[in-house]
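Design a sequence for this backbone.
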């Protein structure tokens, strides 16, 4: 199960990315559209892989690839909107639970993907573990709009991953990667249509400190590598299982946040009581059980 190892490495890097994004969204870039734009606009950079096997796709598959990429950037936009309206601790359980469930359903109908009994058990352990590890008490209230945006984000993420897997099945990894990433760029350009967003996009670099720019580029590098590895894992194995493994990212994100909060308490606060610790240990145990079932 080589794709499982690749997915674990991808989610390890996503955990680092998550800590940086958590900081930047609260301190530096306050507009979800601006943040999604600067991620989407990097899509064409994947053309550097063109010499390693880029193939033309039939028009129908090309359209699906572009839609897949577009869905991913739109999912990021709705995720950031939801995060800003409430808090990341309320959003993560929804994403950790719903993205794999939506992926399971969409992969069943679109890809005709069927999981083995051991994979279904692993899926259950991983998803429940992901939800438990990201649950926490929060004094910020629920906003119906934030909840709606989080559900839209989860559905768009799932649709993006399933359509990407479809393209990998029709072509090769390099072609799938490049054509779906061009969909990133199409949506990024659409963000420039409203004058207010366009102004915010061009002003963002001037308003950001040198330190935050360094963090942003660091996040984009780790995000790009982790996205590349996650997509490679999806091309090799089950898209449903790869998405269900997101709990490993939350576990590593938790550990990373706790460690960093000791050194940078003003930036990242992570309160750990006995009850919280017991909850997190239970979640990590469930995720570990899921990984064990996957290795069978």
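Sequence:
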């Amino acid at each position: 199960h080589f794709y499982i190892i690749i997915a674990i490495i991808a989610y390890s890097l996503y955990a680092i990315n998550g800590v940086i994004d958590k900081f930047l969204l609260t301190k530096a870039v306050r507009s979800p559209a601006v943040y999604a734009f600067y991620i989407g606009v990097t899509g064409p950079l994947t053309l550097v892989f063109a010499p390693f096997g880029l193939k033309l796709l039939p028009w129908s598959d090309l359209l699906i690839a572009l839609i897949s990429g577009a869905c991913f950037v739109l999912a990021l936009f709705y995720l950031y909107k939801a995060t800003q309206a409430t808090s990341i601790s309320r959003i993560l359980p929804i994403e950790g639970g719903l993205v794999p469930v939506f992926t399971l359903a969409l992969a069943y109908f679109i890809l005709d993907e069927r999981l083995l009994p051991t994979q279904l058990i692993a899926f259950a352990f991983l998803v429940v573990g992901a939800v438990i590890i990201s649950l926490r008490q929060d004094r910020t209230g629920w906003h119906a709009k934030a909840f709606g945006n989080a559900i839209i984000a989860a559905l768009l993420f799932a649709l993006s991953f399933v359509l990407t897997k479809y393209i990998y099945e029709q072509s090769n990894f390099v072609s799938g990667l490049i054509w779906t990433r061009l969909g990133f760029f199409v949506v990024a350009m659409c963000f420039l249509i409203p004058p207010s967003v366009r102004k915010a996009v061009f002003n963002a670099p001037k308003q950001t400190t040198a330190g935050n720019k360094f963090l942003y580029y660091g996040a984009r590098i780790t995000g790009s590598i982790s996205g590349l590895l996650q997509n490679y894992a999806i091309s090799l194995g089950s898209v449903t299982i790869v998405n269900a493994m997101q709990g490993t990212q939350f576990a590593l994100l938790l550990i990373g946040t706790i460690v960093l909060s000791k050194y940078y308490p003003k930036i990242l606060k992570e309160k750990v009581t006995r009850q919280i610790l017991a909850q997190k240990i239970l979640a990590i145990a469930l995720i570990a059980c899921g990984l064990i079932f996957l290795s069978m």
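The mean pLDDT is 86.
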